[in-house]
Amino acid sequence: MFSIGKSSKHPKEAAMLINFLLNSKEGVEALKLERGVPLSKVAVSQLRESGAIQDSDPAVSGLKLALSLPHAISASPYFDDPQIVVLFQDAIQNIDYGKKTVQEVAADFQRQGDRILKRAMR
Fold it and tell me: Structural domain boundaries of the chain?
């Protein structure tokens, strides 16, 4: 992330430099993927044309996946239920310590989570 300090003596010029680096063809080509996949559509297009970005790159596919997910999460009072919190912590530990696969943990979490929520919602 680039920023301009509030005490900068040349904020206009600094803004012009950042704009150049992030949006001009020369600036985008100079930075390429040094700062990750750019969020500017123009920059992504230029880097695709030059071959610097490929859809098979993990960073690109990860960004696409993240952008495809819902951006708003509705809050639920059940998120803070102590039993759900413990279930979540146990799930993370089982994965971290290799006791269960992600698929096994997901199935257990759904089964046990449904049971906890049914009791809590009575």
Answer: 11-68, 77-120
